[in-house]
Amino acid sequence: MYTFSKRKAMGAWVVIAGLVAGTAIAMPATASAAGNVCDFSIENVDNVVGDEVKAIALQEGGNGDEIFMVAEGNYIPVSGTVQFPVAGTAKPASAFGPVTNVRFTDGALNFKFVEDDSLENDRISPKGMTFPCEEQEDQLDLFGAGAHYELEYAVHVVQ
Q1: Per-domain residue ranges of the chain
Q2: How far apart are CA 129 and CA 27, in angstroms?
Q3: Rounded CA gap, 141 and 73, in Å?
Q4: Which of 28, 35, 64, 122 has a 20 to 30 Å separation from 146 between CA atoms?
Q5: Each residue of 80-117: pLDDT tens digit?
Q6: What is the pLDDT of residues 12-65, one digit of tens each?
Q7: What is the CATH T-level fold of the domain 3-29+37-157, as seen in this structure?
Q8: What is the pLDDT confidence band of residue 9, given thresholds at 50, 70 and 90?
């Protein structure tokens, strides 16, 4: 079961989530910001540096998790994965490489948070997860495939 929770209210959007025919929905509370140009980034939003991505519960238990993200078709990190050997492990945005910023212009950024497996990857974020192109920063709890991760992120309107 995939669930997605919004930890604190930021910006003018509402997240509706859960398992709804296998699809989580992130909807702006106002009209779409189509035509804007936005940057999505993994960044510190809680004033605790170094915990931008944190494993609360691992998907693979004692073996550790190998995590990557896909934002609008861009892999973060660009190649490979980031290791989370035990629950409680926190990583800074820089652990995901020099490119943790993705520019998008179509009103919403498609996003996946994935645990890498040799046979089949396990999606931890809800299917169909998107971020609207509007000013926001937050910390998300991502649940799926038996795992729980916290992700700090921001979306900034640049044009």
Answers
A1: 3-29+37-157
A2: 10
A3: 22
A4: 28
A5: 999 999 999 999 999 999 878 999 997 899 999 999 99
A6: 332 323 322 333 333 333 344 457 999 999 999 999 999 999 999 999 977 899
A7: Immunoglobulin-like (2.60.40)
A8: very low
Distance CA 61, CA 20 (A): 27
- Return d(Cα 61, Cα 66) in angstroms, integer: 12
**CA separation for the pair 9, 28 (Å, rounded):** 13
Report how far residue 110's alpha carbon sits from residue 104's, in angstroms, rounded to the nearest whole number. Answer: 9
Among 129, 140, 111, 133, CA closest to 30 = 133
**108-115/122-123 β-pairing:** antiparallel
Model pTM greater than 0.90?
no
> What SS3 class is residue 39?
strand
Tokens describing residue 58: 């691992």
Among 151, 146, 112, 159, residue whose Cα is nearest residue 2: 146
